[in-house]
Every structure is written in structure tokens, then in C-alpha cells.
Amino acid sequence: MRQGGANSFFRFVLGFTLFISLSFCITYAVSTYSVAQEKQKQVGAAFQTMIGKEAERDAWWTTIF
Fold first, then answer.
1. Which string of b and e fits 33-55 if b means at least 16 CB within 10 Å?
2. Are 22 and 30 in contact (CB under 8 A)?
């Protein structure tokens, strides 16, 4: 049984569009997760620097004033 050319083409377009859409969604999700993780690390490092958790360094306010 032979399928028509138009039917086959539309199935290809549908499959390809679904594949591209899924790829974009996965890329967006991974990127969002990665940015959130980096933001959390940067906020933690900035907070530690502000409160002077490092033993060998003075607190930021003693350096400025």
C-alpha cells in the first residue's frame, strides 16, 4: 500500500517540528536551571565576602573605612 506524497510530507513536517520544539524546550529548561545554580553560588560567595567569613582577610567595612 502506497501513501500519497502530500501525506508523507506532512508527517515529516509534523515530526520535524515536534523534534525542534522538544529540543528548544529541553535547552531552555537546562539553561534556566544552570543560571539559577550559578546565581545561587554567586550570591553565597558575595554574602561570605560581605560578612568576612574568610579568616585571612579583614571584613569589607574595615578595608573601606
1. eeeeeeeeeeeeeeeeeeeeeee
2. no
CA atoms of 36 and 44, how far apart (whole Å): 12
Q: Which residue type is seen at 23?
A: S
List, for residues 32-64, the tens digit of each pLDDT value: 999 999 999 998 888 888 887 654 566 666 666
pTM: 0.58
Q: What is the pLDDT of residues 6-31, one digit of tens each?
A: 899 999 999 999 999 999 999 999 99
* Type of residue numbered 34: S
CB half-sphere exposure, 25, CA atoms < 13 A: 6
